[in-house]
Amino acid sequence: DVKVTQSSRYLVKRTGEKVFLECVQDMDHENMFWYRQDPGLGLRLIYFSYDVKMKEKGDIPEGYSVSREKKERFSLILESASTNQTSMYLCASSLHRANTEAFFGQGTRLTVV
Amino acid sequence: GEDVEQSLFLSVREGDSSVINCTYTDSSSTYLYWYKQEPGAGLQLLTYIFSNMDMKQDQRLTVLLNKKDKHLSLRIADTQTGDSAIYFCAESKSASKIIFGSGTRLSIRP
Question: How many inter-chain contacts (A to B, CB under 8 Å) are there?
């Protein structure tokens, strides 16, 4: 079974903190993605990566950065957390080809207080 | 542009058919998907259809594609309580980008 594992299910952080969300996949997928999910807005792509050390901005990259030092790991960084970053964060991975299924982690519900 | 739209809620009676609709704007999309998200979980691929097909059937699921109107639908026959979830329509036209709709929350009435 393909597994995409996110390091935390729930996180509570304070405004201004630096936050790291970690994601690991075990299927040797080239692509990895970070989305945030908000009610009524669906999934919005924050960043994606199609190779080690490569990254591309998605639709809402402001306030976030990412790191892909190893193929299996993709980290999302909130440089200075703000309350409007309270959300569900979903990591996904896929092969780098069309008609490919994206495999999702369980999600991390982040609350910034 | 890239935009995938769905209605946010659907309520059906147990045993009836559910039809979830989606419209997309990018006619160059080659693959269209339906993902299911159960409470507290990530998304899982339910089914997909290639853009040169009109219909795909898989057990209780039927996907219909109208390319002219850029309309995709998912029909679930004999809807059960276990079908309660959020259903996302998605389109993909490249090796590295999938665009998701806002999701339709399906609830089942007894």
Answer: 61
- Consecutive H or E run containing A38: strand A31-38
Residues of chain A predicted below pLDDT 70 = 1-2, 98-99
Closest to A27 (Cα-Cα) out of A77, A76, A100, A88: A100
Burial class (CB in 10 A: 0-12, 13-18, 19+), A48: buried
CA distance A71 to A31: 9
Could you give the C-alpha distances from A60 to A8, A34, A38, A85, in angstroms and in order?
Answer: 22, 10, 13, 11
Smallest CA-to-CA distance from A67 within A82, A50, A53 is with A53
The chain A residues in contact with chain B (CB within 8 A) are 4, 31, 35, 40-43, 45, 48, 50, 56, 90, 92, 94, 96-102, 104-107
What pLDDT score does B1 carry? Answer: 46
User: What is the pLDDT, as a whole number, of residue B25?
Assistant: 83
Cβ separation B96–A40 shorter than 8 A = no
Output the pLDDT for position B2: 58
Mean pLDDT of chain B: 90
Closest to A41 (Cβ–Cβ): which among B41, B97, B102? B102
Tell me how far apart the alpha carbons of residues B33 and B101 are, in angstroms, rounded to a whole number.
10
Q: How far apart are CA B65 and CA B34, in angstroms?
A: 12
- Residue A2: its pLDDT value, please? 66
Q: Are B87 and B75 in contact (CB under 8 A)?
A: no
**Which residues of chain B fall short of a pLDDT of 70?**
1-2, 93, 95
